[in-house]
Amino acid sequence: MLADLKYRLRALFRRDAMERELDDELRFHIEREIERHLAAGLTRPEAERRSRRDFGGLDGIKEDARDARGVARIDSLVQDLRYAWRGLKARPAFAAGVVLTLGLGIGANAAMFGIVDRLLFRAPSYLEDADRVHRVHLSHLSSGTMQMERNLAFRRYLDLTELTTSFEGSAAFFGRRSPVGTGEQTRELQVTAASASLFELFDVRPVLGRFYTEAEDRVPSGEHVVVLSHAYWQAAFGGRTDVLGQLLVIGAAPYAIIGVAPPGFNGIDESVTSAMFIPITAFAYARNPGYADHYGWSWLEMVMRRKPGVSLESANADLNAASVASWQREREMSSGARTAAEARVRGELGSVLIGRGPQAGPEAGVVAWAMGVAVIVLLIACANVINLLLARSVQRRREIALRLALGVSRGRLFQQLMTETLLLATLGGLVGLGLAQWGGQTLRALFLADETSSAVAGDVRTLLVTATSTLVLALLTGLAPALQALGEDVAGTLKAGAREIGYRKSSARSALLLFQGALSVLLLVIAGLFVRSLLNVRSLRLGYDVDPVILVQGNLRGVQLSVAETRTLIDRLLLAALEVPGVRSVTPAVSVPFWSNEGRGAPYVEGRDSLDRLGRFMLQAGSPDYFETMGTRILRGRGFTPSDRVGAPPVVVVSQAMANAIWPGEDALGKRIRIGSDTMPFRTVVGVAEDNRGRSLDGSPEFWYFLSAEQRLATFGAVADNILVRVDGRAESFVEPLRRRLQREMPGAAYVNAVPLGTLVAPQQRAWHLGATMFVAFAALALALAAIGLYSVVAYSVAARTRELGVRIALGASLGAVARQVVGQGVSFAAIGVAVGGAIALLAARWIEPLLFDAPARDPLVLASVTGILLVVALLATVRPAIRATRVDPTVALRAE
Q: Is the pLDDT at 449 greater than 60, yes or no?
C-alpha cells in the first residue's frame, strides 16, 4: 500500500519524469520487437513496420498507462481549470460581477457565523465535557410573578454543592472592574473572583507557575494570591518569567502573583476579557466578612458539571430538591419568611452559554435573526449568480452544441461546466473571507465588545464553515445552468444560425428574480421594524435626562472613614464639582439608574395590607437640587427644599405610578407612609414626580419614592455616596476635567470614577441598536444584490432583443413605448416581489414581534415605505437598459433580417 501511494504521488508531482520513463520503456520494447524480426530475416523497414503494427497505437498505450497511475481525473480537472480561467479572463466584467456577488454573500455569512458560533455554540476555551457543564438558575415567586436569577449568595452556593449528588464538580465566579496597581499606574481592569474548583472544570495548565488551590480559597478569608491572564502578563510584564512572587495591588490589598494562565483562557464568562483571577473567598471577605453566613447578598454565578451517565432531567430534579432544602435553611435563619412551597422555589440547569440559557437577553434573539438574515442575503446572491449563469448558458448554446457534436461526452462537459462554477465560487469565497476579515471587526465590536481575536484569520471553525458553504454554493449555482446547457437540442442548435439563437423567455430566471425581490422585501421590513423600535426606545422618557448627567463614584480603596468623615468627603466633592466650568448642579444620590438601586421594600400605609404584591419599590435620596440635576419633573406638589433637614417633619416624594397604585382615584398629596418598618415615623407626601425607569425599559411598573438625603441619613445612618452632576452640553466632554478636579479631594490611595449616565442606559437599548444596525446593513446589501440581478436580467433582455426592438421601431413604435415596455418589465417584477415578500413578512410577524420595542410587527407605515423603496430601486435599475433600448438603430436590425 505504501509503495502504491509513493507511486501515485510520484506520478502526480513528477509527471515529466514519469512521461520520459514511459517513452523510454515503450522504445525499449519496440527495439526488442524489431530485433526479433530482424533475426527472422526481415529487412529493417519491414521489421519496424511489423513491430509497430503488432505493438498497437502508442497514444492508446500511453493513455492506458496514465489511467493506471490514477491521476487521469486530476489531469482533466487541471485542464478544466485552465479552460475556465481562460474563459473568465475573456469575460472580465461577467467574472467580476459573479465573484463580487458571491463574495458579498459569503463574507456576510462568514462574519456572522463567527459571532453566532461565539455566542450560541462554542463552549468556553479549554472547557472539558462542555455538554455536561451548566449554569445554575434559581426562580421564586415575587410580587405575584416568577423571578428567575442566576446570581446567588455564597451561602446558597455552599448549600447546593453540599446537598446535590448528581454532580462531580461545582464552581463559583464573579467578575468586576477593580483598580489594579498603585499611583499613576493604577488602572481599572476586569478581575474575575473564582473558586479554586473552577480550574478543575477545564483541561488547562498554567504556562507559568500554578493555579491557586482549595486551601488558598478557604472560607472565610482566602489567600491574597493572583493568577494573571496570558494577555495581561504579556502587556504589563512583557512575558517575563520572574513575575512569580511579585506583589500586585488589586483593590486595597497586595496579591502575590503565583501563575499565568494559557493564551485564550478566560474562565466561564467569555463576554468580557479578564486580566486576572483571584480566590473568590478573598474577594468576598474584603467586602463583607460575614458573607458566608447569610443569604442576603446575591452576587456570584454558579456552574455545575453532571456526573457521567446522569441525565439532565435527573440532575434538574436533584438541583430542585437542593434548592428547596437551601430555602428551608434560609427560612430557619429568618423568622417570618415564606416556605419554599409558598415561594414556589425552583432550580434549573441552563447552558453554560448565556445566549442559550433560560435568561438569554434580547441580544441572543437578535444574533439568531441576524444569522438568518445573513443566510437570506446568501440565498439572494446565489439566485443572482444562477440568473447570470443561466443567461450566459443561453449565449453559449452554439459553442456547447458544437463541442457535443465533436464527440465530447455530456458527462465530461458537465464536469467542465461545474469546474467553471467551482472556480467562480472559490474566488468568491476568497473575496468573502477578505470582506469578513475587514467587516468582521466592526460586527464583533457591536456584538462582542471585549473580543480581541481576529474576525476570521485563525478561526478554524469559521474557515471550515466558509469552505463548506463555498462548495455547496458552487453546486447550487452551477447545477441548473449546467443541466440547461446539456439539455439543448444539438442538431437544432447547429442548424440555427447565430442570428436565430437569441433571447428566450425563461420561467426559471423570472422565478429567481421574484425570489430575490421577495427576500429583499422581507429584510427591508425587518430592518424598518427595528429602526422603528430603536427610535421608540430612544424617544422613551425615562423620568430623567440622560445626555447631560455624569455619575461620580468614589473608591476609598481601603481608606477607613467614619460616617461623619464620609459625609464631609461627599460635601467637599459636591462643592469641588461646582467649581468645574460648565457644571450646572450636583446632588448626592443613593440609587443610580441601571447601575445600583436601593430597595427597602414596600412602604407601610394606614389601612392597607402589605403592598409587596404590587411590585418592587425603589428608594432614591438626594439634595434639594436632585430633581433639577436629574431633570425629573414634579407633576404635583413640590420637591425637596433646604428646610427638609434633620429635625424637620419627614417628607417623601412619590412617583406617579406609585401614587396611582397605592391611592387609586385619590390625591396622594398629604398622604402618610412609613418606610423601612411599621415602627418608623410617618412621612408626608409633598410631591408627585413623573415615573422613573431604573431597572428595565419594558412596560412593567416601577414604584419610586424619594427622600431628602439628610433625613435618610438621620433615619438609616447611611450616607448617599453617589454623586450626580448636570452639565451644560453632552456629558462626555466634561468627564475628564471633572474627574481630575475631584481626584484632588480624595484621601490617600482613594480615587474617583466619572462616567456619563448614558453609558449605563445604552446597554438597555443595545438589542434594538444592534438589530437596527445589522438589519439595515444586510437589507441594503440584499437590496443592492436584487437591484443588480434585476438590472442584469433586463439588460440581457434588451441586448438579446436588439433586432426585435429595431424592427418594432422601424415599424413605427415610439421610443417612449419601447422605454415603457422595458421599465414596465422591471417594475412588474418588483411589484410581484413586494406582494410575495410582504405576505411572508406578515406571516413572520409573530416571531419578529417579541424582539421589537413598542412597535407592531405589522406596521403599515413600514410596509408602505418598503414598497416605495423597492419600486424606486426597480425604476432606477431599468433606466439604463430602457435608454439603451431606445437607441437601437432600426436600419441595422433590418439589414440583419
A: no
